[in-house]
Amino acid sequence: MTELITALDVDSLEEARQVVSECEACRWFKVGAQLFLRAGPDGAAELTKGHPGRIFLDLKFHDIPNTVANSARAAAAMGAALITVHAAGGRNMIAAAREAVEGTDTRILAVTVLTSMTDQMLRDEVGIPNSIPETVARFARMAVEAGAHGVVASPHEIRLVREAVGPDALVVIPGVRPTWAAQDDQARVMTPAEAARLGATHIVVGRPILKHREPRKAVTAILTELDEASR
Ligand code: C5P
C-alpha cells in the first residue's frame, strides 16, 4: 500500500513534536532544510525516538562524490530512513551515496527536475536541450542504475518514472491534494488515491495536514483514501 509522509514544514522542534504526536497514525515525516536548520540534527533525530526509520531527510545533496558520501553516512548515522540527492550530480555521486549507506536501513532517493523548472529554463539557463519529460525519464533511469533506491517525482510524472525505473524502485510523490483540501501554490495536483493507483510508493503531504483544524483527522482521511485505493 502507498505510504503517507507528512511534511514537517514548520519552524521549530516544538511545533514538529506537536505535529508528530498529533499525527501518530502517519508512519513517515519529512524534515527539510527549514526544520533541520532550526532544530538541528539532534532535534531531527529526536523525532525518530521510539519510531526508528520514520524520518525522510530531504536536504537534496548535490556535491562532489566524496562530500555527498560523507553527508549520506552522517544522515544514516542520524537515523534518517530516506534521504535525497540531486540526480544532476551524476552517476558517480549517486553511486558514492549508495555505497556510503550500504549495510544501513537508509534509502537514497534521486530528485530529477524540479517542478519549478520549465522547458525554456532547462534549455536556456541549464543548457539541457531535451524536454522536461525526456530529462526526468533519463535522470530517473540513470539514478536507479547508479544505485538510488528510488526517485522523487511530480504527480504527472508517476507513469513515466515508473516505466523508467521498473517495478521495484521507490517513487515518492509531493504535490498531492485530497479533494477536500486547498490547492495552495501547487499548480498541478493529484489526489492520494490517483497517485496510489498510478504506482506511487509514498506520497508527501504538507499543508493539507499542517493547516487543517484537526491534523489528526486529515491524516486519518488520507490513510483511509490510500487504503481504499489499494483494494
Ligand atoms: O504543498 P505541500 O505543503 O503539501 O508540500 C509538501 C512538501 O512537498 C513540501 O515540503 C515541498 O517542499 C515538497 N515539494 C513540493 N513540490 C515539489 C517538490 C517538493 O511541494 N514539486
Notes on the structure:
There is one protein chain. It is built from ten helices and eight strands. An eight-stranded parallel barrel has the order 1-2-3-4-5-6-7-8, surrounded by seven helices. It has one domain: Aldolase class I (TIM Barrel, Alpha-Beta Barrel), CATH 3.20.20. The model has no long low-confidence stretch (mean pLDDT 94). Helix content is 46%, strand content 16%. By secondary structure, the chain is an alpha/beta fold. It has helices at residues 13-22, 33-46, 65-78, 91-101, 119-126, 132-146, 158-165, 192-198, 207-210, 215-229, and strands at residues 3-7, 28-32, 55-61, 82-86, 107-111, 150-152, 170-173, 202-205. The protein binds cytidine-5'-monophosphate. Residues 7, 9, 32, 115, 154, 174-175, 184, 186, 204-207 line the site of cytidine-5'-monophosphate. The site of cytidine-5'-monophosphate has 13 residues, from strand 8.
Strand order of the largest sheet: 1-2-3-4-5-6-7-8
How many helix segments? 10
Largest β-sheet summary: 8 strands, parallel, barrel
Q: Going by CATH, what is the homologous superfamily?
A: Aldolase class I
| Tally of discrete structural domains | 1
The helical percent reads 40-55%
Based on the structure given, which CATH architecture is correct? Alpha-Beta Barrel
- Structural class from helices and strands? alpha/beta
Give the N-terminus to C-terminus distance in angstroms.
9 Å
* CA-based gyration radius: 17 Å
N-to-C order of helices and strands? EHEHEHEHEHHEHEHEHH
What average pLDDT do the residues reach? Answer: 94
Anisotropy-based shape: globular
**Ranges with pLDDT <50 over ≥5 residues?**
none
